[in-house]
Structures are given as C-alpha cells and as structure tokens.
Amino acid sequence: MKFYYVYILKCSEKSFYTGFTSNLEKRIMEHNRGYDVNAFTFKRRPVVLKWFEQFTDPNQAILVEKQIKGWSRNKKAALIEEEWEKLIKYSRNRYKREKEHED
Q: Which of 2, 31, 52, 58 has the fewest CB atoms within 10 Å of its CB?
C-alpha cells in the first residue's frame, strides 16, 4: 500500500511551510539541500519537521494540505503542539471575523 503525507516544517526564521509528498524522508532532505532556488524553503534553511499525517488516499491528503495552508500561524502552531482547545479557538475567531466583515 502506498502512503501520502501532509507535513509542516518550521523554517530557520520561524515561519511554517506546509507540503504534500509520497516520500517524507526524501522530501525533507530535498528541502534542506535546497533542490530548487525558487522554493519557499530555499532561503529559509535549515528546516525541521514539526508535524505530519499519513494518508492512503492522495486526494484526501491534498485536501488536507490545502486546508492547512489556509490556516493562520497560530492555528498551525496549535496543531503541532496538539493544543486542541486553541485549535478550536483560532477556528472560531477566524469564522467570527469573516462573519463580521459580511455584515
């Protein structure tokens, strides 16, 4: 069975990078080696793996990657630290802010 991974890296300047791959170990090495000068992580090396989730369905993994990429830094940090109450709090606040702007 083939596995797919969604992952979050912490970059040297403290930003987060979210990605998708079918070979997590190889992908992290590529990020740290600077495989692409145009990549987000190229000038932010070294990077450290902070979180990942494994999937058997690549489409599900891609959906989760896109979802996480839309999250705030605080929400990603809550996921990494498994602070579930904060994860909910940051979700509610964003929803509330978006609703306020609609009115």
A: 2
Distances (CA, A) of 89 to 83, 86, 103: 10, 5, 21
Query: What whole-number distance in Å separates Cα of residue 69 and Cα of residue 60?
Result: 14
For the residues of 40-70, what is the DSSP string, one character each? TTGGG-S-EEEEEEEES-HHHHHHHHHHHHT
Cα–Cα distance measured from residue 34 to residue 45, given in angstroms and rounded to the nearest whole number: 8
- Produce one character per residue of 14-52: b if its CB has 16 or more CB atoms within 10 Å, e if not: eebbbbbbeebeebbeebeeeeeeeeebeebeebeebbe
* Residue 103 pLDDT: 53
Q: What is the pLDDT of residues 77-87, one digit of tens each?
A: 999 999 998 88
